[in-house]
Specification:
Blueprint lengths: L2 H8 L17 E6 L2 E5 L5 E4 L3 E7 L2 E6 L7 H11 L2 E2 H10 L10 H13 L3 E6 L7 E6 L1 H16 L7 H7 L6 H29 L5 H29 L2
Antiparallel strand pairs: 1-2, 2-3, 4-5, 6-8, 7-8
Length: 246
């Protein structure tokens, strides 16, 4: 099965949701990785699946799982994706994530990386090999396995298929916007706008300075992130005008 076939199998018509779910036994749970389950069906696609699987269907493309909600954390998936780029030591992986400013668009605390490496190695998704450089002590260098690459593809396709999550704290603040005194709301919005503008400028500067060296994936991530900030800034300008007119 090709990647295109797998993608086509995950994105299907709304009519799928109207079908009668098969028996839960059709979903075979192989292992737990972090907050996710690894689900394997009759296809070559193996991925990180949310714990509450809605149902699983079979077709000529193989077996595809549909989900109702995302996992709480994608730490293992991010770490697996970074290992897939090249064999790497844990410290170098943390450094790579820092240099790539992964924290700008994903939750990846440095302290969680080493535990994630242990999780992935225990599940057979990565394999460690002791490597000695010069007179320094040997250190574990991780590389992705065939099973890990299959799981990675499945997990990435799941995230690419899932709808965007619109939930954030700013929307909660808007819920009570009419309760806040006007002057204090405008003051808070001014602070928020300044912070957003500062981050927007930081992202634009970083992107312009590094875009030529960035991979296709990182260029896509940062161009999308910048456009999201640009749209939010435009929305903020209009919203502040509306608050002033109240």
């Amino acid at each position: 099965m090709t990647t295109g076939d797998a993608r086509a199998g995950l994105v299907d018509s709304p009519a799928l949701a109207q079908r009668t779910p098969p028996e839960p036994r059709q979903v075979r749970k192989e292992a737990t990785v972090g907050n996710a389950l690894v689900c394997r069906g009759k296809s070559e696609l193996e991925g990180f699946c949310p714990a509450n699987i809605v149902w699983e269907r079979e077709s000529n493309r193989g077996c595809t799982a549909l989900f109702s909600m995302p996992t709480k954390s994608n730490t293992d998936l991010i770490v697996l994706a970074l290992v897939a780029e090249e064999p790497i030591h844990g410290y170098d992986l943390v450094k790579k994530a820092d240099e790539g400013k992964v924290a700008d668009w994903a939750d990846l605390p440095s302290s969680s990386v080493y535990q994630s490496l242990k999780n992935l190695e225990a599940k057979g998704y990565i394999k460690a090999k002791e490597v000695r450089v010069g007179k320094s002590p040997p250190r574990a260098v991780y590389r992705i396995t065939a099973g890990g690459r299959s799981a990675l593809i499945g997990g990435l396709l799941r995230l690419m298929t899932d709808p965007l999550d619109p939930r954030d704290d700013f929307s909660v603040a808007l819920l009570g916007a009419e309760t806040i005194p006007k002057d204090r709301a405008l003051e808070a919005l001014d602070i928020h706008t300044s912070q957003v503008m500062a981050k927007f400028g930081e992202l634009e500067e970083y992107f312009e300075e590094n875009r030529e060296e960035m991979s296709f994936a990182y260029r896509a991530i940062y161009s999308r992130l910048i456009e999201q900030y640009r749209a939010h800034i435009e929305w903020l300008e209009n919203f502040v005008k509306q608050v002033k007119d109240l």
